[in-house]
TrEMBL record:
Protein name: Transcriptional regulator
InterPro entries: WH-like_DNA-bd_sf, WH_DNA-bd_sf
Short name of one Pfam family: HTH_24
Protein species of origin: Deinococcus xinjiangensis
Length: 220
């Protein structure tokens, strides 16, 4: 009588293991804050050269950064790694849900008009900051480039496009989608902000909050 062997499990693609290791590496930095390459290699149970390759890839991708720190504030400086803002963005956040709760309570306590006042106050603060970064003496194209760069840094994935007649701000992501879907005044406040900062007429043609693929703003 012969005994059949259990089927061999399917092979894991060679590229899967490195990606899984990178994910574990990011999770370690999220949990511990900063770690040396040696600490990471020990915790991941991989060689230091392999760890350094993963660290190099993640640094190139903008997910982690290296810096020099003194252990416990004293001793010899050591090279450590930490998550960047983009690296933090890999992990789930509940900011939108928290924002929704806060706005709902403000609305319940002070009425619907209070939400508009909140967005207007936020607009005024952002406009003051952006006016300093985008002075009016700069050409419009330069100010648009700086503005879209700033928008991308806070999660809008913004680019400039032209159809030969007009310039457009295209936002390919809405970092506050849940809030924008509930409170349409957020999109209106965004439109007012761009008009104020650019000193130009700005027309909204598409919005992600209304189910369209992008937010599209025509300048002029």
């Amino acid at each position: 009588m012969t005994t059949s062997l259990p089927p061999r499990p399917p092979a894991v693609p060679l590229s899967a293991a490195p990606e899984r290791t990178k994910t574990r590496l990011l999770e370690l930095l999220k949990r511990h804050g900063t770690l040396t390459a040696q600490d990471i290699a020990l915790k991941l149970e991989v060689s230091i050269p392999a760890t350094r390759r993963h660290l190099s890839d993640l640094c190139d991708g903008g997910l982690i950064e290296s810096r020099t720190e003194r252990p416990s504030g004293r001793g010899r400086p050591q090279h450590v790694y930490a998550l960047t803002e983009n690296g933090e963005g890999v992990f789930p956040k509940t900011y939108s849900a928290l924002c929704m709760d806060i706005l709902r309570h403000i609305e319940a306590l002070h009425g619907e008009g209070s939400i508009i006042k909140v967005f207007e106050a936020r607009n005024a603060e952002l406009a003051e900051r952006l006016h300093q970064e985008l002075p009016a003496h700069l050409p419009l194209e330069v100010r648009l480039e700086l503005l879209t760069r700033r928008l991308s840094e806070i999660g809008f994935d913004a680019v400039i496009e032209s159809d030969g007649h007009h310039l457009y701000i295209i936002q390919r992501n809405c970092p506050s989608l849940m809030v924008a879907q509930k409170y349409k005044s957020l999109c209106h406040a965004e439109l007012q902000l761009y008009t104020l900062v650019l000193g130009q007429a700005v027309h909204r043609e598409k919005t992600i909050a209304c189910g369209q693929g992008v937010c599209r703003y025509r300048i002029g």
